[in-house]
Every structure is written in structure tokens, then in C-alpha cells.
Amino acid sequence: MKDPKTLTLDPPPAFTLFPSLNPPQKTQTFHQITTLFITFLAYAAFHASRKPPSIVKSVLGPDPNPNLTQTGWAPFNSSGGPHRLGELDLAFLSAYAIGMYFSGHVGDRFDIRIFLTIGMIGSGVFTVLFGLGYWFNIHLFGYFVFVQICCGVFQSIGWPCVVTVMGNWFGKSKRGLIMGVWNSHTSVGNIVGSILASSVLGFGWGWAFVLPGILILIVSVIVFVFLVVNPQTIGLELPVEEDSGMGTNTNTEGIALVNSNHDDDNDSERVLGSSSDAIGFLEAWKLPGVVSFALCLFFSKLVAYTFLYWLPFYIRHTAVAGVHLSHKTAGILSAIFDVGGVAGGILAGYVSDLIEARAVTSIVFLILSIPALFFYRLYGSISMFSNISLMFLSGLLVNGPYALITTAVAADLGSQSSIKGNSRAMATVSAIIDGTGSVGAALGPLLAGYISTRGWNSVFFMLIFSLLVAGLLLIQVVRTEITVKVNEGKWLLLTAIAKR
After folding, report:
1. Which of 19, 218, 251, 416 makes the best surface tag, with the fewest CB within 10 Å?
2. Alpha helices by DSSP H, 136-249
């Protein structure tokens, strides 16, 4: 294995093919924008290739309208079809969650550009292989499970890599907003995947997998040729922290104060992206705030991924204004949830930068999402307008904290003062947080597959309960954030109240 300190010294092939890309012809700002775009494109492609299983559920499973002759696709078209579809989700997401812990550890010790490219190629190949089951008339449940497990392992490589690259190029100032805008790749990928997969269902469900699979293979070439992992690779300086009080600190109880202004005196030594040895897996778990946010993401992502994998199926099986929608319409309509997710991620990032408190922002979104889901279940079927508006609101509130925790919070915790800004810890910390969240993501769709046979009210009760628990897990961090802000006089209203 290579020396950790010399992992990313070689520039990508594009800098040999196109010398004009090198500094000083192109500035650091140009390369920051380019990096943001390439990583955005890469993870959007990951999510686009992850979306087809949710789109084809209503095609593979038994049709809700008994008068139609459509019988689905064996072995998913029997009365136990929803159970098997849920087990298929479990296979993918379990492999994804387990793989996430290992990929983050490897990502801190390997050339991230090459590692990310491998993950994208593997994801594309196995996504296409799933779709080929249509043309080869494969009805063996074990085949689909095997393909989903392999796909999940390769998909787990993506997130730790792109978060680390972003952390290497961008300092903490305005990180919440930047990461919020950037994290819209998740929803954009879901939207693209939904539209691609839904638009070709009429030609056979296999196309719903083949097109997104080809898309991620194409983007993998762009990543391999153009992605610059860190500024040093091309002779630029690392982003120095601005004196804006966006550091991560720890109080005497060991609680991470994400975005507190209480910086160390030796702030200049804590440069994001500094070269140092990669942090150990168990050591990363002990970092302040990692456990609280990881467990919160477990329940938050459980909800988000239940919508990701079951919303088209739910829409197809729930009459809107008394009418059952087609497979194609249900798939496209489900993209509204992700449109709301784009707005939610940006809004959560902006608010967390504004008030300088990630946990407070997250818990407010989580609390508000509870009535949003309740009203969507209760009134979403009244009309198309109510369905779209409540679905958008639910997506905004559910995906807001999910996006914030997986991006800005993970990057903050992976470069906090207790480890002197060691960016080599970012992939490991990001993998721990998102990997734990992915365990919840695996559990949610599986439970939905079983619980949905008893009625959708039970599914929504599970989702609302999960959001409540997610919020409760952040209470101690929220209290600490508020205490610090009051003591520093940052939140004037709360300070005035405290003095009284």
C-alpha cells in the first residue's frame, strides 16, 4: 500500500492532455468550481442508478387493480411480492451500509480519484446486469439479490470519496450553504433516475436499469480524466480557514459544537486538508458528536430511503382524487418529493450557516416534518394539487436534516479542532455517519415492504415515530449549542432571556 502522504500527488490525465488547465492559466477558484461540478455530477449519477428499483416495483409486483390482466414479474408478482421487493432493497442497502464502513477506511489510504472511478464502473455494470434479467427472462430471486449486493458494495465507495474531495477544496466558511447546494445532487440524481426509468417502462422494465447504468459509466470517465482530489495535486495552496468562527469545538462534556466561534488560538495550524496520517476507525467513532449525529441519521435516513424506494409504489396503490395513476405517471410524480429535497438541503444549509448551529437546524426540520407526513397521508389523496404540494413539503423537511448531516456536519466533525483539521479523517468520519444512516436506510424499506400489507397508515406511523426518535437523539447537542451561543452573546434574544 502507498504511503498515505503521497496518495494524490499525480494529477489526472486531463492535465497532461490539456496543459492550459494547470495553474496559473487556471485559478484556484476555477478548479473549486470544476471540482464542485464533477463531484456533483458523479454522485447524481450514483443516485440516478439507484432509483430504478423503486420505479419498477409497481411493474414487478402484483397490480393494485384486480380488473387488469397485468401480472407482474415472477418471483415478485405473488401475494408475497411486496415482501420480496423489500428483501431486495435490504440486500442492496445492507451491502451498501457494511461497505460504507470499509470504503471510508480505504478511501483515506488510497488514490480517491481511482477509487471513486472503480465504484462508479462497478455500480454501472451491476445496474445494467439487473436490467438484463428482463431480456434473458430471469426469474431466479437469488440472481437479483446477488446483483443488488454487488451493486451496493460498489455504490458505498461514492459518498466518502466525494465528501473528502469537497472538504479538501473548501474551507468551513459558508460550508453549510455550499454543501446544501452541492448536496442537491442526491435529489437531482433521484429526479433524473425517476424520469429516465419511468419514460422507458413502456419498452420493457429492463430499460429502466440499462439507461441509468450507462449514464454512470459515462460519468466515470469524466471523473477519472478530470477530477483533482486536492489543491496540492496541481500545485495550489490548501484552503486556509477564514476567521469567521466556523470551527468545531468541544465543551468539557465532550459534545461537538459544530460551527461554534470558539476557535483555538493556533487556528492557523488547523488547515483543512493538511497532510497527516489517516485516523483509525475506532478512533473516529470517539470523536465528539459523531455518535449523536450518526444515530440521528440512522432514523432520518430510514425515512428518506423509505420514500426513495416505496413512494412510486405508494402513489400507484393509492387513488388520487379517486383515480389510480399509471406506472409511468406515478414514477414521474414521485420526483416531486426530490424537488422538495433540493430546496430542503439548500435551506437547511443556509439556515445552519446563518445561526451557526447545525444541530438546532436539524431538530427544527425534524419536528416540522412530523405534521407534514401526517397531513400528506391524510389529505394527499384528495386532489392532485394537495398531493403535489404536501409531497413537496414533506421532501423539503425530511431531506433537509438528512442532507445537512451527511455533508456539512460530517465534514465539520471530520476536521474538528481535536484532530487538528486532519482531512484524512473526513472519509472515515463521513463513512461512519453515512454508513450508520445506511443501516437505517436498509431497515426502512424492508419494514415498509412487510408493514404495507397491513395498511399504509402503519407505514406512516413507523416513519413519524422514526423522525421523533431522530430529533430526540440531538437534544443534548442542541442544548450545548444553545448554551454556547448564549454565553458568547451570539443569540441576543436568548441572551436577554437568560439574564432575566
Report:
1. 19
2. 141-155, 158-169, 175-182, 184-199, 207-226
How many of the other CB atoms lie within 10 Å of CB of 91?
21
The phi, psi pair for 247, rounded to 5°, reads -80, 175
Whether the CB-CB separation of 299 and 442 falls below 8 Å is answered with no
Give the global pTM: 0.74
Give the C-alpha separation, 223 to 228, whole Å.
9
As a whole number of angstroms, the distance between CA 461 and CA 395 comes to 17
CATH of domain 26-235+244-261+275-499: 1.20.1250.20
Give the span between the Cα atoms of 436 and 21, in whole angstroms.
39
| 3 state DSSP class of 109 | coil
Question: DSSP assignment of 447-498, as one string?
Answer: HHHHHGGG-HHHHHHHHHHHHHHHHHTTHHHHHHHHHHHHHHT-SHHHHHHH
Could you read off the pLDDT tens digit of each residue along the chain, which spans 500 residues?
444 444 445 889 999 899 999 998 999 999 999 999 999 999 999 999 999 998 998 889 876 555 554 578 999 988 778 889 889 988 998 898 888 878 877 766 788 999 999 999 999 999 999 999 999 999 999 999 999 999 999 999 998 889 888 878 876 655 667 777 888 888 899 899 999 999 998 899 999 999 999 999 999 999 999 999 989 889 887 665 543 333 344 333 333 334 433 343 333 333 333 444 555 667 777 776 788 888 999 999 999 989 988 899 899 889 898 898 888 898 889 999 999 999 998 898 889 888 888 889 999 999 999 999 999 999 999 999 999 999 999 999 999 888 888 777 766 665 555 554 455 566 677 778 877 888 888 889 888 888 987 889 999 999 999 999 999 999 988 888 888 877 776 655 555 555 55
Residue-range domain boundaries for the chain: 26-235+244-261+275-499
Helix (H) / strand (E) element for 256: namely strand 256-260
